[in-house]
């Protein structure tokens, strides 16, 4: 049941928005650096070779 719910959230874009909101909160609290995080996530995508 949880997997089905996750697929629904992912399909509607909810999971991506939630993930982005958490990252921005962590950045605002000084717990992560979004400039580094964005660079890492862009270069670690499937089929991407830096």
Overall description:
The chain is an all-alpha fold. It has one domain (2-43). It is built from three helices and no strands. The chain is elongated and about 35 Å long. The N and C termini lie far apart (38 Å). The relative contact order is 0.09.
Q: Kindly, what is the distance between the CA atoms of the first and last residues, rounded to a whole number of angstroms?
A: 38 Å
Helix amount, in percent?
Answer: over 70%
> From the alpha-carbon coordinates, what is the Rg to the nearest angstrom?
14 Å
User: Which oligomeric form is depicted?
Assistant: single chain
Structural domain count = 1
Shape: elongated
Give the SSE string: HHH
The helix-and-strand class reads mainly alpha
Question: What is the typical, i.e. mean, pLDDT?
Answer: 79
Largest sheet: none
Give the amount of beta strand, in percent: under 5%
Number of helices: 3
* Poorly predicted spans: none
Total strands: 0
Write the SSE topology.
Layout: H1 2-12, H2 14-28, H3 34-43
Give a quick summary of the entry.
The chain is built from three helices and no strands. The protein is elongated.
Kindly list the characteristics that best describe this protein.
mainly alpha, single chain, 72% helix, elongated, 50 residues
